[in-house]
Design a protein that fits this description.
Elements (H helix, E strand, L loop, with lengths): L5 E6 L6 H9 L10 E6 L5 H13 L5 E7 L2 H4 L5 E4 L11 H22 L5 E4 L4 H10 L9 E3 L2 H15 L6 E2 L2 E3 L7 E3 L4 E2 L2 E2 H5 L2 H13 L1 H9 L5 H16 L6 E6 L11 E9 L2 E4 L7 H20 L1 H4 L1
Parallel strand pairs: 1-2, 1-4, 2-3, 4-5, 5-6
Antiparallel strand pairs: 7-10, 8-9, 10-11, 12-13, 13-14
Helix pairs in contact: 1-10, 4-5, 6-8
The structure holds 1,4-dihydronicotinamide adenine dinucleotide (NAI) and oxaloacetate ion.
Length: 327
C-alpha cells in the first residue's frame, strides 16, 4: 500500500541551490524511494515564471514518488501542513549594501516566514535555514514561531562539516566516510571552528594520524572557513550543488538518524558550552528517532575557547543587529 505523502516546503525555488535540491528530494534522496513527496515551492512574484520552468523539468524526470507540486509566492500557502522546510531563499548582497543592511533585509524575510510557519505548518515541522546569514536567519525564524518547538528550527553548518571532512581525509590519506566524531562550532561564516580534536579513523585519533598541528590550525581551519569565497572566486557564483547536498545530508540525518555518529548542525543553544541560550550555534549532534541531541560534556581547551568565543561574538553582534526587528 502506498504511504501517505509528506509535504516539503522549499523557498528560493528558482535559485541555483534549488536547481539541484528539488531534484534530489523528488528522487527520494531525503525520505527514501518508497515515500511519496509533495513539494511546496515558494519564491518571489517576479520569479514565478522561472519556478514554472523548474516544475516542467521536475515533470520531465517522471519521478515516481513526486506526488504533487505547489507553486506560490505566499508563505502561508507554501508552509501549510508541511513536515519539513528548507528555507533557502534569501536576499543577496547587492552593490553598495552594507552587512547591516543585508542583515535587516533578511530579518524582514525570516520574520514573515517564521510567522507563517507558526500559523500553518505541522507542529513537529523540521526547519533547516540555508539562506545567509543562516544562523541569524534561523534565530529570527525561531523568535517569530513561538508555538513550534525551538529545537526544530536549525541552520546549516553541514557544508562546513563536509568541507572539513574532505580536506582532512585527503591530508590523512583515508576515506571521508571513515572519519568519525568531527565537529564544526559556531557561525556559518569564516569564523566557524572546525574541531578535529575528537575525530577518529577506525579507532585511531585523527590528530595523531595527521601529526601536523600547524597545518590544522594555519591551513585547514581558514581553508574551510573561506571555502565559500574560494568557490565564488572560481565559479563566479556561490556553492550550489554542494550546498544542496549538505542540505539533504542535514535533513536526512535528522529524519533517519546517524547510528550514533556525530554531525554538525546549527541549533538553538540550551546554554551548554558557554553559548547563551537561543543563539543558533553550530554544534556536534547525534540524531535518533527524528530528533537530535547535542554531544555533551566535551572538554574545551584554551585554543577551542578562543575560537568558540570569536564566532560567538560575531553571532551576538548579528543578534544585536536585528533587535529592532525581533526585539
Ligand atoms: N548555509 C550555507 O552553507 C550556504 C548558504 N547559501 C545561501 O543560500 C542562499 C541561496 O543561494 P542560491 O540558491 O545560490 O541563491 P540564488 O540567488 O540563486 O537564489 C535565491 C532565490 O531566492 C529567492 N528569494 C529571495 N527572497 C525570497 C523570499 N522572500 N521568499 C522566497 N524566495 C525568495 C530569489 O528570487 C531566488 O530565486 C543565499 O543566501 C546563499 O548565501 C549558499 C551556500 C551555502
Ligand atoms: O557566501 C555564500 O553565499 C555561500 C556560502 O555560504 C558558502 O559557500 O559557504
Amino acid at each position: 500500500m502506498t504511504k501517505p505523502a509528506v509535504r516539503v516546503a522549499v523557498t528560493g525555488a528558482a535559485g541555483q541551490i534549488c536547481y539541484s535540491l528539488l531534484f534530489r528530494i523528488a528522487n527520494g534522496d531525503l525520505y527514501g524511494k518508497d515515500q511519496p513527496v509533495i513539494l511546496q515551492l515558494l519564491d518571489l512574484p517576479q520569479a514565478q515564471a522561472a519556478v514554472g520552468g523548474v516544475v516542467m523539468e521536475l515533470e520531465d524526470c517522471a519521478f515516481p514518488n513526486l506526488a504533487g507540486v505547489v507553486v506560490t509566492d505566499d508563505p502561508k500557502v507554501a508552509f501549510r501542513d508541511i513536515d519539513a522546510a528548507f528555507l533557502v531563499g534569501a536576499r543577496p548582497r547587492s552593490k553598495g549594501m552594507e552587512r547591516a543592511d543585508l542583515l535587516l533585509a533578511n530579518a524582514e524575510i525570516f520574520k514573515v516566514q517564521g510567522g507563517a510557519l507558526n500559523e500553518v505548518a505541522k507542529r513537529d515541522v523540521k526547519v533547516l535555514v540555508v539562506g545567509n546569514p543562516a544562523n541569524t536567519n534561523a534565530y529570527i525564524t525561531r523568535k517569530c514561531a513561538p508555538d513550534l518547538p525551538a529545537s526544530n528550527i536549525t541552520a546549516m553548518l553541514r557544508l562546513d562539516h563536509n568541507r572539513a571532512l574532505s580536506q582532512l581525509a585527503a591530508k590523512a590519506g583515508v576515506s571521508s566516510a571513515d572519519i568519525e566524531k568531527m565537529a564544526v562550532w559556531g557561525n556559518h561564516s569564516p569564523t566557524m571552528y572546525a574541531d578535529y580534536r575528537f575525530a577518529t579513523v577506525k579507532g585511531t585519533p585523527l590528530p595523531d594520524l595527521i601529526n601536523d598541528e600547524a597545518w590544522y590550525r594555519d591551513v585547514l581551519i581558514p581553508k574551510v572557513g573561506k571555502r565559500g569565497a574560494a568557490v565564488i572566486e572560481a565559479r563566479g557564483l556561490s556553492s550550489a550543488a554542494s550546498a544542496a547536498n549538505a542540505a539533504i545530508d542535514h535533513m536526512h540525518d535528522w529524519i533517519h538518524g546517524t547510528n550514533g555518529g556525530w554531525v554538525s548542525m546549527g541549533v538553538p543553544s540550551d546554554g551548554s558550552y558557554g553559548i547563551p541560550e537561543e543563539i543558533v550555534y553550530g554544534m556536534p549532534v547525534v540524531c535518533a528517532n527524528g530528533a537530535y541531541e547535542v554531544v555533551a560534556g566535551l572538554p574545551v581547551d584554551d585554543f577551542s575557547r578562543t575560537m568558540m568565543d570569536k564566532t560567538l561574538k560575531e553571532l551576538l553582534d548579528e543578534r544585536d543587529g536585528v533587535k529592532a526587528i525581533v526585539g
